[in-house]
């Protein structure tokens, strides 16, 4: 008799159609913001990130926003984008959390390099661009390797194109000086690289190649940030990428190495 291999995180997968990660992000961002009672100026906000602030701000800046419009628009965008990935793929809860976590920290890497003048940044939009980066990888690899016409894949393609067009217009036409394009790009980059690591295929060679590409790009960026002298965002981003690597190695082991073993019928001997 074949032994059954339980789905990874089988308990949480029972609730796969409930976007737990999405709700958790929105609630945590909202609760932390409103427990602080008001929106404070950049230089007075201890959550704001800049290169000379404490290490904890590499993570905390995502939980601080400038205005009510800022936080509401981000939360609505999370509610629109994140469930598309979270409830349509296996281990979607964990995958989307890692994308959020890594995108937030990678945003500080790019912000540090592009704004060495010590400007402040806050807001969780890097996590939104992270999921768009994941959509881009899904669209490309899904079309090439699977030739999929899945309706969710089409939706991911459409959203990716729309967001990139919006960002390009906003950056080069309106030139909004308040928007942190560096942080957005860092989040997008993290989403792309983490998705390469998360990508799964029936052939182990594709799993290994995609993991190597994602690992090299992700940790290459953090190492470059460190060489530029910004050890805080480099360390924070490296920490955020470790769970994705460990989980992918586990998936490869369970799917390709620790396969079900069937005992041949003629090997079964009844012992007296």
| Low-confidence segments | 1-12, 260-272
Strand percent estimate = under 5%
Specify the helix fraction band. Answer: 55-70%
* Mean pLDDT over the residues: 81
Topology:
Elements: H1 10-13, H2 20-35, H3 57-60, H4 68-86, H5 92-114, H6 125-146, H7 151-174, H8 181-198, H9 204-227, H10 231-257
Helix pairs in contact: 2-4, 4-6, 5-6, 5-8, 5-10, 6-7, 6-8, 8-9, 9-10
What attributes characterize this protein structure?
mainly alpha, 67% helix, 10 helices, Rhomboid-like fold, 272 residues, disordered C terminus
Give a short synopsis of this structure.
With 272 residues, this protein is mainly α.
In words, what does this structure look like?
It is a single chain. Helix 2 (20-35) runs antiparallel to helix 4 and helix 4 packs parallel to helix 6 (125-146). The chain has a single domain (17-253), classed as Rhomboid-like (Rhomboid-like fold). It is an all-alpha fold and 272 residues long. The chain is built from ten helices and no strands. The two termini are 22 Å apart. Mean pLDDT is 81; it is low at 1-12 and 260-272.
């Amino acid at each position: 008799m074949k032994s059954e291999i339980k789905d990874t995180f089988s308990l949480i997968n029972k609730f796969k159609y409930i976007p737990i990660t999405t709700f958790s992000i929105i609630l945590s961002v909202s609760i932390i913001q409103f427990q602080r009672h008001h929106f404070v100026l950049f230089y007075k906000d201890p959550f704001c990130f800049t290169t000379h602030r404490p290490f904890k701000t590499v993570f905390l800046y995502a939980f601080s926003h400038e205005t009510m419009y800022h936080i509401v628009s981000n939360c609505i965008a999370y509610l629109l984008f994140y469930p598309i990935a979270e409830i349509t793929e296996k281990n979607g809860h964990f995958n989307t959390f890692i994308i959020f976590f890594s995108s937030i920290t990678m945003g500080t890497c790019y912000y540090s390099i592009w704004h060495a003048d010590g400007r402040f940044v806050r807001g969780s939009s890097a996590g939104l661009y992270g999921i768009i980066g994941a959509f881009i990888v899904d669209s490309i690899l899904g079309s090439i390797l699977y030739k999929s016409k899945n309706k969710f894949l089409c939706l991911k393609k459409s959203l990716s194109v729309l967001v990139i067009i919006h960002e390009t217009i906003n950056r080069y036409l309106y030139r909004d000086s308040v928007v942190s394009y560096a942080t957005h790009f860092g989040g997008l980059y993290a989403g792309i690289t983490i998705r390469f690591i998360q990508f799964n295929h029936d052939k182990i060679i594709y799993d290994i190649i995609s993991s190597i590409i994602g690992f090299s790009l992700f940790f290459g960026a953090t190492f470059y940030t460190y060489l530029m002298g910004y050890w805080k965002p480099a360390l924070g981003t490296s920490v955020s990428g470790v769970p994705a690597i460990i989980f992918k190695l586990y998936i490869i082991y369970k799917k390709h190495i620790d396969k079900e073993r069937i005992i041949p019928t003629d090997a079964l001997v009844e012992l007296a």
